[in-house]
Amino acid sequence: MAVYTDVSFEDLESFLESYDLGEPRVFKGIAEGVSNSNYFLQTETGAYILTLYEMRVEAADLPFYLALMEHLACSEIQCPTPVHARNGEVTGLLNGRPAAILTFLDGVSLRRPTAEHCQAAGRALAALHEAGASFKGRRANALGPQGWRTLADDCAQKADTVGDGMRALIEEELASLTAAWPATLPQGIIHADLFPDNVLFVNDRLSGIIDFYFACNDALAYDLAVMLNAWCFETDGAFNLTKGRALFAGYQTMRKLNLAERAAFPLLCRGAALRFLLTRLYDWINHNPIALVRPKDPREFARRLRFHKGVKQPEAYGL
Amino acid sequence: MAVYTDVSFEDLESFLESYDLGEPRVFKGIAEGVSNSNYFLQTETGAYILTLYEMRVEAADLPFYLALMEHLACSEIQCPTPVHARNGEVTGLLNGRPAAILTFLDGVSLRRPTAEHCQAAGRALAALHEAGASFKGRRANALGPQGWRTLADDCAQKADTVGDGMRALIEEELASLTAAWPATLPQGIIHADLFPDNVLFVNDRLSGIIDFYFACNDALAYDLAVMLNAWCFETDGAFNLTKGRALFAGYQTMRKLNLAERAAFPLLCRGAALRFLLTRLYDWINHNPIALVRPKDPREFARRLRFHKGVKQPEAYGL
Q1: Which spans in B286-298 are helix H?
Q2: Which stretch of DSSP H or E encloses residue B168?
Q3: Chain B residues with CB inside 8 Å of A2's CB?
């Protein structure tokens, strides 16, 4: 949670000269976003987010993310949409960083979503998958099995200092998941990071989906497996079957999973747990103490991964 | 710039049960405030700031600050005003911290204010002094000459590692300022920290004054000396006489300085420069590298202090 690149009001004013957004009324750095610097901006014409893309978001991928958000917003998905500058561009350079202005969505993210929220979020994911089908852009999932291998190698030496048996757990899982990873499930645009932080609600009504900076092409059901990991476990580590059922029910009102997707679901859940275990472990081990972000505990996902290893049938998730 | 205490939406929801503010629509931690955690909150009824008071703001002083803001807002000073809970209280406990909800003011703070902005800000300071005259609360200035002595002692050992001759400069100034510090100038409520960060503008019109957590009773002209230090120097260290003139002109449209205040002005400027030199030096020396706040450079105020030492007459400032 940080603002990495400082933007003065005067910097903002020059940047806004290329846009038709009117006079700024509010401009505040917000303590949100692990990889980017984000500012809340209100002008005569509305509310926006100004994002400066720091190193972790590869500049080459920016056009993909921004075009995707624009495509989804045009397809009535409630998500931020980039504002075009007068010259038509959706990015500019601000204090040495690529920067974009996106529309701001009202809503708050929940720390402890209920089953009803899970259902609404599941439905929104299916709507996103449907709307993504007509999107032309493509981006490979950098955090699929190949990416896991690289992260696992980088973390191998120190993994056991973070949790007992961590290294062995990762190696075993990597070996069996890589061997069995399904290649023929229905593919499409996935959000790939739809945690409760990235879903907004107003008055318990879903009002938006944000943070598309991991979006890519991959198996649609994998996206739902990410959500199951992120939405359906209690803070004590217990799996909440009611929330699982609600998530699937919401999703399947819009898009039915086929038999292959159902059968692969336990495996996809293990893969999703491993993916977040590995990125958190990497950030934990390589955490710079003077950084402005506190790393998240990787062990949470080691527990979830162990839970999934014990699951034999999709029914155990409520599917 | 940080959020020290994490507040989930659910924490907020329970806290809001004591208020009549309606349903929350936006809730974001903002990267602002060195001592407190601040959240931007928008509900059905308007925009607010939720502040959690961390250690640096003494809980015993909170009623003074909040009552002062309420008094000033009632006297048509544009400043945040605390929202009363249903039981009449203006503070509550949130995640172990005293917390208050204040009205949010539109406006942006300027990094490089012009002479016109200085004039508007000077006028607003005089209006604040006038409105403060009828306020009954009292709080001594903890960062007056006695406070400087304590800070200087704490920093003495390491002062010269920050800047050449820093320790000697501080000791000499402390000795001469303490001996000559005026005790009979007109007193009242002062803001004591009216830097450009704390003054908001919309479309070049002053829209608000914020951050009253150093406010206290002291010499009114000292408050203007703080502003001269904060508003009238260029980034290269040069004093901008045009801005000085504008600041005084703005102030004196509402409140004329008397002869004693004019005569004391160079001394007050030295005191104000020393006060910010010392607090910055203390924060610089005692900076915890894992803290979320980057300390400000104390040497800026050493340069200003040396400039003031060379000033013999208030005319040199444009007064």
Answers
A1: none
A2: helix B166-180
A3: 31, 292
Contact between B244 and B119 under an 8 Å Cβ cutoff? The reply is no
Q: For residue A189, with 0-12 CB atoms within 10 Å meaning exposed, 13-18 middle and 19 or more buried, which class applies?
A: buried
Chain A residues touching residue B110 (CB < 8 angstroms): 8-10
Query: pTM here?
Result: 0.89
Angle at the Cα of B26 from the Cα atoms of B24 and B28, rounded to 5 degrees? 125
Q: What is the mean pLDDT of residues B265-270?
A: 98
CB of B234 within 8 Å of a chain A CB? The answer is no
Nearest CB to A32 within list B25, B29, B202: B29
Residue of B nearest to A290 (CA): B290
Q: B49 with B40: CB under 8 angstroms?
A: yes
- If pLDDT is split at 50, 70 and 90, which confidence band does A1 have? very low
* ipTM metric: 0.84
Q: How far is A229 from chain B (nearest CA, A)?
A: 20
B28 vs A12, A30, A289: nearest CB: A30
**Residue written as token pair 């976003």:** A33
Give pLDDT tens digits for A207-224.
999 999 999 999 999 999
Q: CB burial class (10 A; 0-12, 13-18, 19+) of residue A207?
A: middle
Contacts of A22 in chain B (CB under 8 A): none
Listed residue (A203, A36, A184, A190) closest to A110, CA to CA: A203
- Is the CB of B238 inside 8 Å of chain A's CB atoms? no
Phi-psi region of B107 (alpha: psi -120 to 50; beta: other; left: phi over 0): left
pLDDT by residue (tens digit) across B162-202? Answer: 999 999 999 999 999 999 999 999 999 999 999 999 999 99
Rg (CA), chain A: 20
The three-point CA angle B178-B182-B183 to 5° equals 105
Q: By the CB < 8 Å criterion, does A35 face chain B?
A: no
pLDDT at A57 (0 to 100): 64
